[in-house]
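Changelog-adjacent note: as of this version, every example in the card shows the full chain rather than a window. The one below runs 195 residues end to end.
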Amino acid sequence: MPIPSTRRGMSEWFGGVRYPATLDALSTYVPLGMAEAALATPDVQARSRAVLDVMDRLMSTMLAAGEVAFATVAAYLVWVGWDQHNDEAPDGSLSGPYEAWQVVGLVLTLSVIAGASGWKQRPLTAIVVMPLALTLCFAVDAVTDPPEQNDGLWVIGAAMVFVGALFGTAFVAAVAAALARDRANATSGPAKTPA
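Full-length structure tokens:
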């Protein structure tokens, strides 16, 4: 039996059943079995769209979390990750390994990352991801220090880094999100009628 070459022919070939217009904008005829016809109902289509919307938001959130984590780790490595030795003061005491300018640079960079995440209306992503990524970087850096530099107090330092990053990120991301909302509300305010 030859394969039909027209839409009408395909419709006749497969029994004349076609998808609803919401699924098939071109209104081409396609074969449907009983199970496929049941899946083409408007109720199932609405549920499918809802599931796809949730999956889209989840993937978007995961991508944003990955971006924030990558930016946080990169900032840590650029500002303080490379400095691994303590500095000896003239009186013989050790300080460091980080200088004040390195920490200030890291904090400012992390503030920009948190602000950008808040501005894009993803403050929770920054609040969750940044402190964890920063603390993990600090902990790995501290644990891998040479034994003469590792006094075992890195756990306290890691806890302080986590708490400071958590509060700092929450503040900056929340302020940026509020400013972005205010700006969006101001630009989409009530329509003005001509006088």
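Structural remarks: Residues 1-30 have pLDDT under 50 and may be disordered.
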